[in-house]
Amino acid sequence: MAEEITLEVVTPEKMVFSGKVDEVTLPGTEGEFGVLRGHEPLLTSVDIGELYFLTGGKKFYYAVNTGYAEVTGSKVTVLIETAERADVIDKDRAIKAKEKATASLAQINKEHEDYEKMRLALARAINRISVADKLM
Questions:
Q1: How far apart are CA 39 and CA 72, in angstroms?
Q2: How far apart (Å, rounded) are the C-alpha atoms in residues 29 and 48?
């Protein structure tokens, strides 16, 4: 087994996760990237997507929103807007949010002041559904 690293996932409201993990994968704004112990130091932005980590031979999935990640040789700190563990995501609510955002986007053009807000809402809803499906 690889040496463990410390992972901390923090939102403005709370510490979502803090513990030792074998590896972590993050949705960077330049693409998904993985971190193992000994990774080169890195400060990067995080995009809407799936954060997952492996510990004790089991994967744990989170739907995350935008933020930042700092990587050192033995620690990953993720400062993120929101993070929801797959098993607590309300999939029905996420589906309704997706439908609402899709309907709103269909009624406005790209120049509308709410277009980007609705596009991001759709991306978050799709991500939450995808992460929730990891438990099936």
A1: 7
A2: 8
Residues 59, 6: Cα–Cα separation, whole Å: 15
* Domains of the chain and CATH, by start: 5-86 (2.60.15.10), 90-135 (1.20.5.440)
Other CB atoms within 10 Å distance of the CB of residue 91: 14
pTM of the model: 0.90
Residue 119 burial (C-beta neighbours within 10 Å; 0-12, 13-18, 19+): middle
Length of the chain: 136
The type of residue at 103 is A
Q: Identify which of 41, 76, 43, 42 has the alpha carbon closest to the alpha carbon of residue 62.
A: 76
Query: In angstroms, rounded to a whole number, what is the distance separating the alpha carbons of residues 46 and 27?
Result: 6
pLDDT digits (tens, 9 = 90+) for 63-118: 999 999 999 989 999 999 999 999 999 999 999 999 999 999 999 888 888 899 99
